[in-house]
Amino acid sequence: MGRDTTGLQKLRARRTQPSSTNPYIFLLVKIYRFLARRAACPFNKVVLHRLMMSRTNLPPMTLSRIALNMKGREDKICVVVGSVTDDTRLAEVPKLKVAALRFTETARARILKAGGECMTLDQLAMVAPKGSNTVLLRGKRSARTVYKHFGAPGVPGSHARPYIPTEGQTGRKHERGRGRRAGKAWKVKA
Question: What is the pLDDT of residue 66?
Answer without folding.
Answer: 97
